[in-house]
Amino acid sequence: MLPEDKLALFRVAQWTLDNKRKLVKTVRELAGTEENYLIVIREIDRVEAQLRRARFLHAEATLTLVDWLTTLEYFRWLCAYCEAKPFQVMSHFTLLPRGGTTPDNCVPACYSCGRYRKTENVRVQEYLDSVKCRLESTQLLKND
Ligand SMILES: [Zn+2]
User: Fold this and answer.
1) Residue of 63, 139, 70 lying closest to 100 (CA atoms)
2) Is residue 141 predicted with pLDDT exceeding 90?
3) In DSSP terms, which residues pair with 78 in a beta bridge?
């Protein structure tokens, strides 16, 4: 993916943080190209579906599109577990409802890795720990 395409996706994601109503027209404009638009719409739907699932199970539901795109970028849009196949599903590292749909519990996975959960994956664990740390320090700053 080109840097300007990545930028466009994050622009849309940032905009969705401030605007609850996701107007198709604005998303399309911010996305720039039709390809970006299709990618971003797909990820908006994915995040929202997983947030709904979490809420339904009375789990934490705090993942934003910005969080999710940041994670996708980190794993280069590949499966976080095998690091070989393109990602196909959002995997909850700790099962819902315990883990929640949160920035420190969701990673991209291919179908087979998503099905056979590899919870002892060190790289994924380290990434999620670093996200958790970042979230906690942001929270501390807010409370000051
Ligand atoms: Zn995989």
Assistant:
1) 63
2) no
3) 86
